[in-house]
Design goal:
Helix content is 43%, strand content 10%. With 278 residues, it is of the alpha/beta class. It has a five-stranded mixed β-sheet.
């Protein structure tokens, strides 16, 4: 999809990009190959130079170049070309203004988890392995909380599915989007974000390892489901381009979650009140 993108070039917005596509300039190669298009000589030279630079950064596998130039609502275009550089990320906290309790990190193959008081400090090293992070509401919540609580700078390109999914008609927070996508959370159904602090409190105050395992299962499920939602969003966004059916990605087979929710704990916690920030 990136080789069909002109939106990252200065002076090229949605309307101009659409005009290029409609004129038959569907890719960088089309323009570099002197595809007939109504452009001034100066603008064509500028566009050609920008495309040649873009090719260099794509060959060098540098998503930051494109992430810095694409509007934030267009960074979904990076997905297919840089899928191997993506981490899906979700955190749980003690509350809106609280500390991080757990983090789940998933790269499409492996799930890694981090727990306050155990291995939370390892997150800083591991997240450096990735150039792009995919979250739900991460720009407003997860990333600022991580930066504040752990004292680190998240320099990765961000794809926040809250806004991408909304643009294709999904709504209702992460769980609402999952329901619209037909994602079944099985024994975790009914657990919401406001239950996570309760699970942590049970673990912290009562040393209840089953509560921690349930929290980690919930955190991992949130994170793993982001990949499915990312694929669905990418395919739906393609429908508004000339490339539907060309770049569509099959839905992933999610991994086995390494933690199992305790059903008795789930039932007890679901009957408790709380708050929600999604």
């Amino acid at each position: 999809m990136l080789k069909n993108t002109f939106h990252h070039i200065r002076g090229i917005g949605t309307t101009t990009e659409r005009k290029l596509w409609d004129a038959g300039v569907l890719s960088w190669e089309d323009l570099l190959g002197n595809q007939p298009v109504i452009l001034s000589r100066r603008k064509r030279e500028t566009l050609t130079a920008a495309i040649e630079e873009s090719l260099q950064h794509l060959i060098a596998r540098n998503p930051h170049y494109f992430g810095q130039r694409l509007p934030s609502n267009q960074c979904w275009r990076l997905f297919k070309d840089f899928r191997d550089r993506i981490a899906y990320l979700d955190i749980e906290t003690t509350g809106l203004e609280g500390e991080i309790t757990t983090i789940a990190l998933y790269d499409g193959q492996d799930i890694r988890t981090y727990v306050r008081g155990r291995n939370l400090n390892q997150f800083e090293r591991n997240i450096q392995e990735y150039d792009i992070i995919v979250t739900y509401n991460g720009k407003c919540f997860d990333v600022p909380v991580i930066e504040s609580d752990l004292g680190l700078q998240m320099n990765q390109v961000q794809i926040d599915l809250r806004y991408v999914l909304r643009s294709v008609g999904f709504k209702g927070g992460l769980k609402g989007c999952e329901r619209m996508a037909g994602i079944d959370r099985n024994e975790l159904s009914g657990l919401e974000g406001y239950h996570a602090p309760i699970l942590w409190q049970e673990f912290r105050d009562k040393k209840n390892e089953k509560a921690l395992e349930t929290l980690l299962a919930y955190n991992c499920q949130d994170t793993v489901n982001l990949e499915t939602l990312m694929v669905m969003a990418f395919n739906l966004k393609l429908r508004d381009t000339p490339f539907k059916g060309i770049y569509e990605v099959p839905l992933p087979n999610g991994p086995e979650i390494p933690f199992k929710a305790d059903l008795a704990t789930v039932d007890r916690v679901k009957n408790m009140g709380g708050w929600s920030w999604y």
